[in-house]
Amino acid sequence: MSLMATTSPATRATIYHNQRCSTSRKVLALIEEAGIVPTIVKYLDTPPSRDGLRKLLDDAGLEPSQAIRKKESVYKDLGLADATEDELIDAMVENPILIERPLVVTDRGTVLARPVEKVTTIL
After folding, report:
1. Taking the model in full, what pTM does it have?
2. Active site annotation includes 49
3. Which residues have C-beta within 8 Å of that of residue 23, sequence separation ≥ 6?
4. Among residues 116, 101, 121, which one has the least CA distance to residue 41?
5. Closest C-alpha to 74, from 52, 89, 96
6. Catalytic residue among 2, 12, 14, 21
7. Checking DSSP bridges between strand 103-106 and strand 109-112, what pairing results, if any?
8. Which listed residue, 44, 49, 101, 112, has the most CB atoms within 10 A of its CB?
9. Which residue spans traverse the membrane (predicted)?
10. What's the start-to-end Cα distance of the chain, in Å?
C-alpha cells in the first residue's frame, strides 16, 4: 500500500477585487474556473481595517512596501518613498487605492496574485 501525499483543492476563496483592474478580473476568472464561487470584497468601497490589512499581508508573507502601488499619484503626493512600513500601512488603510491587487485568501493560503498565475498555488 502506497501512502502518497495528496493536496485537496481549495473550497473557499475571498478576493480583494477592483473590477476596473484587468489583472484582478483575470484572477477572479481563474478562481471561478476552478469551480469556486468566491467572496468578492470590493476593497475600494470596503477597505480592510489596519489590523485586517496587516493580517492579510502577514499571511501572504509581505511587507507593506511589497504590496503598495507606487505608481499611484497619491503615493507621490503623500511623499511615501521614505515612509516606514507602519506609515505605509496607515496610508494604505486611509487610501485603499494604494493596496496592490488582487489579494486572494483560500483555505490553502493567501497570495498577492501578481502575476495572475500565482493564484493557482492556493486553489
Report:
1. 0.91
2. no
3. 101, 102, 113, 114, 116
4. 101
5. 96
6. 21
7. antiparallel
8. 101
9. none
10. 28
